[in-house]
Amino acid sequence: MKPNPNSAQPPGNRPAREKLDISAAAVQPLPSPPQFVSDAGALGIEFEPGDVEKLGLYLALLMKANETQNLTAIRDAAEAWRRHILDSLTLLPALAEFPEGSRVIDVGSGGGLPGLPLAIVMPHIGFTLLEATSKKCDFLTQAAARLGLSNVKVLCGRSERVAQDRGVRADSFGTVTHTGGHREAYDAVVSRAVGRLATLVELTAPLCRIGGSVLLIKGEKADEELKEAERAMHLLKVVHVETLPTPTGRIVILEKRSATPRDYPRADGEPARAPLGVTTE
User: Fold this and answer.
1) pTM for this structure?
2) Which CATH number characterizes residue 230's domain?
3) What range does the domain containing 170 cover?
4) Per-residue pLDDT averaged across 211-220, rounded?
């Protein structure tokens, strides 16, 4: 009997899944639409020479990788410039006063939004891209290398676990300090299109240092989500400072007033399954 070519192969005989490799791909930067620079200028954004071309290269790499990975539903280049690049850069005014060497973490970075566009135009700031899916981490690592972004680190893991990483504990003459780690280690935490605010606050606030900012790109339901997240914000010691309208959405700005209680964030999946202060009927 001849073998059926359509029959399932034993696991040991299956061909290895092809790995993403954009390091040497012949990818050319996507040209920016005519209105992109003027739209950015209306937000007070001025580009250094080479920034726009590098943003276009990032978009081209994203589109190339999207042929085999589910990184974005947007296929149109002009739409991607507005809904990905411009939307990410709306955070620039809120980050503009952060000094050189500040640390920013992008929670749920996915295909690198908003972290990679921000890292391109803010080389004096260190960006950590936190992503739980290994395939997406591979893309982020390769894209950052291809773009020559020495100010970017990729961290593959869940926020629930990373935000509980206090680093190495040292006790010297009665003074306890921690070195390394990620809990309360960042000057700002940013996130885009990750989830509702009541969930997102628990995944972001524990990573923010006391006195730092949590900057969340949201949509039309920002006010509704803020109302729903009041209890979560109270428990996690953050205060709503301002909501800024932008051409592509809204930016919710939270300030971290005191240390996050040690119980937060909860175990993997709990913030999404049962958001703090949200009752289900």
Assistant:
1) 0.89
2) 3.40.50.150
3) 94-264
4) 97
- Average pLDDT rounded to a whole number, residues 98-116: 98
- Whether 109 is covered by a domain: the verdict is yes
Q: What is the mean pLDDT of residues 90-115?
A: 97
Q: Does 124 reside within a domain?
A: yes
241 lies in some domain:
yes
What's the total number of domains in the chain? Answer: 1
150 bridge partner residues: none
Q: Which of 78, 65, 126 is nearest to 98 (CA)?
A: 126
> Is residue 6 domain-resident?
no
Check whether 46 has a pLDDT greater than 60.
Answer: yes
